[in-house]
Amino acid sequence: MLRIFLGVLALTAAGGLKQLPGLSEAFENAALIGVHYHYTWVFYEFVPLDGVLYCEIAAWGHRCISAENEIHELTSQFS
């Protein structure tokens, strides 16, 4: 899980593959990217059910995440 606080914004990203019970070879993409805006208490949620998520993590800390749903789009790169 990754959490970043930028003054009034908080970014949370988590994910992995979850094995489905009873199906030995079936996996589900369990992922979430969320942005919380402090002043208005608005939470923007990006999950695989209603959008597209992409994450690239290098061995020494470079991260690129992006997400898109019907209303919003998010792209973030950081080291």
Automatic annotation (TrEMBL):
<keyword id="KW-0732">Signal</keyword>
<dbReference type="Pfam" id="PF14249">
    <property type="entry name" value="Tocopherol_cycl"/>
</dbReference>
<dbReference type="GO" id="GO:0016853">
    <property type="term" value="F:isomerase activity"/>
</dbReference>
<keyword id="KW-0413">Isomerase</keyword>
<protein>
    <submittedName>
        <fullName>Tocopherol cyclase</fullName>
        <ecNumber>5.5.1.24</ecNumber>
    </submittedName>
</protein>
<feature type="signal peptide">
    <location>
        <begin position="1"/>
        <end position="26"/>
    </location>
</feature>
<dbReference type="InterPro" id="IPR025893">
    <property type="entry name" value="Tocopherol_cyclase"/>
</dbReference>
<dbReference type="GO" id="GO:0009976">
    <property type="term" value="F:tocopherol cyclase activity"/>
</dbReference>
